Amino acid sequence: MLELAPRPAPAPGQRIRNAMTCDVEDYFQVSAFAPYIDRASWPTRECRVEANMDRILALFERHGVRATFFTLGWIAERYPQVVKRIVAAGHELASHGYGHLRASDQTRAEFANDIRSAKALLEDIGGQAVLGYRAPSFSIGRDNLWALDELLEAGYRYSSSIYPVVHDHYGMPEAPRFAFYPNGTDGLLEIPITTVHMMGRNLPAGGGGYFRLLPYALSRWMMAKVNREDGQPALFYFHPWEVDPGQPRPEGLGAKARFRHYINIDRMERRIESLARDFAWDRMDNIFLNRP
């Protein structure tokens, strides 16, 4: 039975803490590039995730931001020092699966193996329990809700994989906008990316290409509206490749994929810096799991 999670309450006199999250993957691994980049070519491509993560971790340290990093097992295996830096800086280490395969493109057995192998790898390198999972491209929805049972069975406590919006690649618009238990409080906690409800639909307000496309002032207004009017923490996400305008540009990309990936990418790092100043931020587990 679906149940909404209790609303996280700020301490007296404090602002609402919002959840800052980063999906740790490289530019050639994004789902929009899948038709153009052969997965078999990944090991031969220039990886830039390590340098980009150093910039992000330094930015967060300057502003006292603690965040959750949903990390690919493929990245962790090749760059274990990235995982160790995340943990050493006081951030939460979480799972993005092993090889950025959409949950909706896997059988139940394949998915179970993917989430378990990624969790074990991350915990071995990071030395801390991995409680959270985010499906690549928010690929859990009405047709594969069994994935939530597999996550719970594998030892995860929460997921951030159902996006309550209409989108051509993902989305479950009828899902709740805020943290909920899809199968009751004994099951997994699902924590959606932030949306605002306007004009009869949920509009994305928590990162991704929309954050780069829209004016920063509008994104800031939407997140503040969720804090102020809904009394809920906002959940924001981005990727290391989004702060890297100098990344290699694969040939032959379709116009839609090229637009979505590169729009305003040169402004992203400054916008993350603005977010760090304009809101209070914390890790997912601290906000949603470690409540009194």
TrEMBL record:
Residues 39-292 form the NodB homology domain. Pfam families: DUF3473, Polysacc_deac_1. InterPro entries: DUF3473 (IPR022560), Glyco_hydro/deAcase_b/a-brl (IPR011330), NODB_dom (IPR002509), PuuE_HpPgdA-like (IPR045235), XrtA_polysacc_deacetyl (IPR014344). CDD domains: CE4_PuuE_HpPgdA_like_2. This is DUF3473 domain-containing protein. It comes from Telluria antibiotica.
